Amino acid sequence: MSESPHQNPPSNSEASSNPPSAASTAASERFNPTCLLRPSTKSSSSSNTTALVPLISHPTPFGLPTFVEILDSLVLHPERTSSLILRADILPTPPSSPSPTSTSSLSSSKIPTPYRTVHRRLLPRQPHRDAALLQRCTFHRSPSSSPPSERVVLTPLLEPGQTEVPHYHPAVNTLHFTWTPEEIGIAIEPLEGEEEIAEQSRVYRTALVLLQTVWKHGLGLEKGYKKRVNHDILVPRDDFQDLYLTLKERYRHLIPLWVESTNPSKHVWEDVSIASYLILLWRSTYPPSTAPPPAVQDSARPWTSYPRAPGGFVDLGCGNGLLTHILHSEGYAGYGFDLRARKSWSALFPSTPLKAEAFDPAHLLREEAWLLRDCFVIANHADELTPWAPLLCALTPGAAYLSIPCCLHTLTGRFTASSPPGGGGRYAAYLDWLARLSGDVGIEAEREALRIPSTRNWALVGRRRAEGAEGQRRAREMVREVLDGGAWKARKEGVGRDH
User: What share of the chain is helix, strand, coil (3-state, %, to 5)?
Assistant: First the structure.
């Protein structure tokens, strides 16, 4: 990650004391920055040494260790400072061939020698619009003989053919985050010939957001804040983001063609996200022997060579059919079914295997499995079919499932339980109930918060089975109880909600 990962910063006994003064503590209760701009704030085009321009400051709300930890975190995760940035790839060594360049002319005598350097590549969230950007991040600390201070300098490095920084990066030569016992601040080395910087300028507004981010994250760290949701447990973040961006471009054309009454952008991006997640989940779940033969693989689409469910996939309550269409188009065998056909089935996906049929729990009591052995069941916002996914898997040899619950249903009706003792609302209680149901039929339910544009983004993944036949026996017992009680009331065939 760093050129000098084991190099310690210069010691400074005053700087290492974390508690700020009483005045600083009071000031930290609310964000109250000071604009440092002056009417004559312009870049110098007549001097060989460009001056630093302080933009904004705030009374120091935390000690130096907290400042360094926050800046280190933001170097690794720049997406926390801008919604236009996807992530940063940390480069193990400095970029060399061809050598990128910096337009900075700041004299090295103005700041101490860096004790740590990180090179990273910023990746945009919209790669069709914005380019990636190399950046050098250096950490500087004042000598022990001087008053304590810290500076983190971000320097954009332009690659051959790149004439300016992308839109998501401030148009500056260098960007400086500073800490002293009195204040934290943002300063810049402007581009040569830059016009006067005003409070309404984009670079100042960006500095304001950056300083507030450092302030907020630092206070959260000092108060012991912990993330409530951890993503990327079952599928690596970088792999997911890369595949998602690729598939996003492949299916972008569907948005202006959308024929349903629902929001096209939401549905297209959400199903592209889920398809990306499934493809990578299958890659880590099934052995290499389940990959298709080389004759049907596409080198331009490496995911066509990934392992997958030997029995294909089944999309329960497939709705508009888009998720089934994406998976089928990318070389994954399977089909979707719902109570009624949607307009998009014939208008957009005429070659995708989509069926209009009703689900009947009695199918699960047949001697032969209703679904193909070793299949993968998808229950994406499947309404009444959601709780049946684990039972389907329990009664189908080798089957696994992904469930993304939306509406709250049990096997026989609406879910009415209240919030769990730890909070989280009825939706959290429903997830707990579904996980217990899955465990009762012998299938462990793993949980994952998906990176999809939906407020109902929790997924349950069932791919690990308990040994023995007890789970299957219990699943059959549940199906019989539902049928004997006459409680199952599926919608009539041809009737269903758009989703």
Answer: 30, 20, 50
As given in the structure block, the two tokens for residue 63 are: 């000690």
CA-CA distance, 44 to 194, in Å (whole number)? Answer: 8
Q: Read off the pLDDT of residues 194-248 as tens digits, 9 standing for 90 and up.
A: 777 899 999 999 999 999 999 999 999 998 887 777 789 999 999 999 999 999 9
pLDDT of 38: 81
Nearest to 73 by CA among 227, 228, 301, 187: 227
- Between CA 80 and CA 87 the distance in angstroms is 9
Burial readout 195-228 (b: 16 or more C-beta within 10 A, e: otherwise): eebeeebebbebbbebbeebbebbbebbeeeeee
Local structure of 308: helix, strand or coil: coil
Q: In what order do the strands lie in the sheet with 85-91?
A: 34-35, 53-59, 183-190, 172-179, 150-157, 133-141, 116-124, 85-91
DSSP state of 10: P
Give bridge partners of residue 187 from the DSSP assignment.
54, 176
Q: Please report the beta strands in 74-168, taking only residues with DSSP state E, as ranges in sequence order.
A: 85-91, 116-124, 133-141, 150-157
Q: What is the pLDDT of residues 25-60, one digit of tens each?
A: 544 578 999 999 986 555 444 444 458 899 999 999
Integer Cα distance of 406 and 498 in angstroms? 13
Give the pairing of strands 400-404 and 376-380.
parallel
* For residues 466-485, average pLDDT: 92
Among positive and negative, which fits the CA dihedral 415, 421, 427, 433? negative
